[in-house]
């Protein structure tokens, strides 16, 4: 990739013997949104802290916006924005005061900082609440102000560490739409999340991280395809017939969800499977509410890549 | 980078001033608390053990020194809050001078302590207390007190960076009291059991209080403590300033 926004080669970081990053590799192209997806403790936050110069890596070559995060930390800081897991704001000050403070620390000067604060408050729909102490903000407002604070200088690269954790659906939608509008402006975004839906919605490419390294990478579609392609879902009218249906349908690797009266199985030939299932059900007189072919969800991909069966396979 | 050191430090100081503007009651409480202690010890408990001359003349310099010592709590609390709120991560990920966070903290705390001294001296004067020695002695005394406060400030920053948790602040807040009172701020060491008097004599705060009393011409004050009142804080600074700066740098470990 020519001139990537983020390059990580063999990043390592340990805390007291525990490896948070264990040879992690990552390349992010400029102007894209890259999702880093992983369970708790996978190393996502450590990765963001290393990339944003807050933590010094033990080993590895790590460059952000063309500058080394250790040797050229200052140059990196000029070019990044950071939205951490916890609101990085002065809770006692007002929204405007916060933005002006960060603007001055970005050396925009008094007038520049004030103008930028106005602009961002307007853009994030906080103009009316700029005087209120951040302590009194709602979760969604606080997150938007935090995001505004990380955009003071139109950063080349923006890090979002679980940006919607703890937000209600409305707050989440607000943050999502803000992120989408950013990308239009050419900013590269690295986003960590535990929510597959979030990665699916926002990210161009996704790295699945587990135990401090990348275990899979690709677009959401590629990851779904990698997990074994299409699936067929069959919803029966009568849950009592699930067992009979599993026995007679021409499918293998069937999983059953009794609460939803649902059978699900991977398929290779889509049309063959569909017509076979419909025929078998009709012949046996089992009534189906729904029969559908679909791609696997990212949840299934995620569990497949980071779940127990994955670990067993690795150990074997 | 260093080109911005002054601007950034000033910006961080202004941040603290803006917080005062946001919480005037908090600021007022901080300034009035020492006055309350002065009134309590001067009138309520009063008398003072073994003090020659008016107890008020002995007590006011002691309260001035005690107020400087208690400043440690405020510094530690503020730094701990910043560390736990995540805002320090934003500062550290920004292209600002590294030390500005600590310089801003110091400047604001020193300013608040200077204000506390002015208030306390003002109230003392209103109650009829008249320090001897004239304006030069008064300035010298304030200088010694602020030097002691500066040492307390860096101990506070260091403790906050080491402990880092609000629970630890509480523990230190409780411990500051006996350490503060194990001094000659309120009572003459000679009136205490021998071993206690020795401990009290060693307390750096006792030297500051004695030197201030000497400057104010309080009768019965041992003279010659000015050097100790200068050297003790400098020694504490020589230890805790580099430790705190190193700890701050190690946040990236």
Automatic annotation (TrEMBL), chain A:
The keyword Nucleotide-binding applies. InterPro entries: AAA+_ATPase, ABC_transporter-like_ATP-bd, ABC_transporter-like_CS, ABC_transporter_ATP-binding, DrrA, P-loop_NTPase. It comes from the Bacteria. It comes from Streptomyces indiaensis. It holds the Pfam family ABC_tran. PANTHER family: ABC TRANSPORTER ATP-BINDING PROTEIN, DOXORUBICIN RESISTANCE ATP-BINDING PROTEIN DRRA. The keyword Transport applies. It is found in: Cell membrane. Residues 6-236 form the ABC transporter domain. Keywords: Antibiotic resistance, ATP-binding, Cell membrane, Membrane, Nucleotide-binding, Translocase, Transport. The lineage of its organism: Bacteria, Bacillati, Actinomycetota, Actinomycetes, Kitasatosporales. SUPFAM superfamilies: P-loop containing nucleoside triphosphate hydrolases (SSF52540). This is Daunorubicin resistance protein DrrA family ABC transporter ATP-binding protein.
From TrEMBL, chain B:
The keyword Transmembrane helix applies. It is found in: Cell membrane; Membrane. InterPro entries: ABC2_TM, ABC2_TM_bact-type, ABC_2_transport, Nod_factor_ABC_transporter. The chain crosses the membrane at residues 27-46, 58-79, 100-129, 135-162, 174-196, 226-245. It is a multi-pass membrane protein. It comes from the Bacteria. The keyword Transmembrane applies. Residues 25-251 form the ABC transmembrane type-2 domain. Keywords: Antibiotic resistance, Cell membrane, Membrane, Transmembrane, Transmembrane helix, Transport. Belongs to the ABC-2 integral membrane protein family. This is Transport permease protein. It comes from Streptomyces indiaensis.
